[in-house]
Amino acid sequence: MLTKKGKYGLKALVHLAEMPAGQLAFVNDIAVANNIPKKFLDAILGELRNAGFVQSRKGKDGGYRLARPADEIKVGHVVRVLDGPLAPIPCASRTQYQRCEDCNEATCQVRHLMLEVRQAIAEVLDQRSLAEMRDIADDLPVARDDLPVKVQA
Amino acid sequence: MTGPTNSINSIIIVGGGASGVVLAAHLLKSPNPDLRVTLIEKRPHFGQGIAYSTLLSAHVLNVGAAGMSAYADDPGNFWRWLLERGLATPEQAPVYAPRSLYARYLKELLDDLETRERETGRLRLIREESLSISPTASGVEVALANGTSVVAHLAVLATGHDEQPAQGHAIRMGSEADTALDPDSRIVVLGTGLSMVDAFLSLEQRGHRGDIIAVSRRGLLPSPHRKGNPIKLDVADIPLGTQLSYFVGWFRDLIRENQKAGVDWRDVVDGLRPFNQKIWQNWPASAKRRFVEHTKAWWDIHRHRMAPEVYARVTEAVQSGRIRPIAGRVVGVTPGDGFAVEVQSRHTQRLETFDAARIYDCSGIVRDISTSSNSVVRSLVDRGLARPDPLRIGLDVSADCEIIAVDGTVSRKILAVGPLTRGTFFEIDAIPDIRVQCARLSKRLLG
Fold it and tell me: Which of residues 22-51 of A touch B (CB under 8 A)?
């Protein structure tokens, strides 16, 4: 499952991928532009730095930038670091396996199918790079008329 | 990925060692009656590269017989071959067969192919040294040392491990310079890995009794095999594309958790094996470089292990002082009556001098592929038709085994398999990996 942490992390990285190469972004700017709580974002960026996806500089002119070109960082790489093994439900993981209280994992048909689903998730997410994710935005219609219309009461 | 290329009928394989024979066997599975496979080998025998030409029975395979089939789709092929000839019994498993026996298996396999293809004319063996490969308008031309040449649609390099010239005063074991020695003389070996172990076994066989000073940067000896059951992992479990330190941290934790549950570390290391190429290919260049520089020595002793019976002999020799492994480096060699070899310890910086009758180079590392001893490889690099991979441990090839020229052009006509491709495929030294690479390549080329 993609948690909020994973989602925020991806948004922050796409934000960095939109910056001119080498330029640093302030944490505050990333947080405001993407509607992410600043403290949470600090923690997320710290983890992304440990994994080698972003670099940071401290001080007044400090901030974050991608450690590598955006087309080299795959979405699946990022999600594993922030959310752990890719798995649609907790029992469908081999290293972070969590037993379901209410079923027998050996015979559970749901789990068997979900083990297959996780391979499919990995296949999609490991093919797509941050650069591709960033460029999806360019293909979206500018007017947000695909969003559900709120009916005024 | 490109689909099967139907126009390809003729393929030259340069190098008839293990990887060349394995590739030929996979190509000849194609039903195409017009297929022409030419296998060129400079040594008198096919199927025996550096690894399998040893006659010493103590030089056993470092992979159990059950993992050594030449065929990707028939993993039990070698094991059955052993059983059918009474060379092993089922209850003996895992068996670490002598490498000379594996050479015989490959020879018989090739003999069978030759017999089968005699009518069809699809397989041709040439015993001659290849000098160079040149692209032509319609394919490739391979020039041979006897002045003739062979043409085909494409050529695959299967030249195997590169033997680079020995360092300084050291010599390679088994080379012409490896003459008889006083059996009580002291020997210095550069390297403490599996090649050093091979050298020790050869010296024992020759009746050598003197001690062996084995020097490498870390002085680490390989671990022994143990019967086990690799853990099951999915690609979804494994962090890809991270910095090296992050990955190593994850892997150490995984081992620790499994050990807590009573699982042997070997089963964790072996459980990762199906993903090793993927992990390598997804790492940033900096992680690859760091791995080769700092982590590979540790990885190798856990991943490339010794047969238990070999380990027992080595351990005994270390305990009795016959073998003395030293973490350090050779800082000076003074020739005289033998050599005075000065070694500096890695940890204490202390210098120690050993009088040795001979220095063997068992470091086994490709230092720079562009200085390869293989004329075909060197001439490709010299003409800019091929380039070293960023780490210079092999040739730069695409994920489809095509060699990449100096200007970045991917060749459709000149390909490579086996250890030459380790810059792209990382673990591609052993049969279990090479056979998969050959099966994929055959499928792509011939459908």
Answer: 50-51
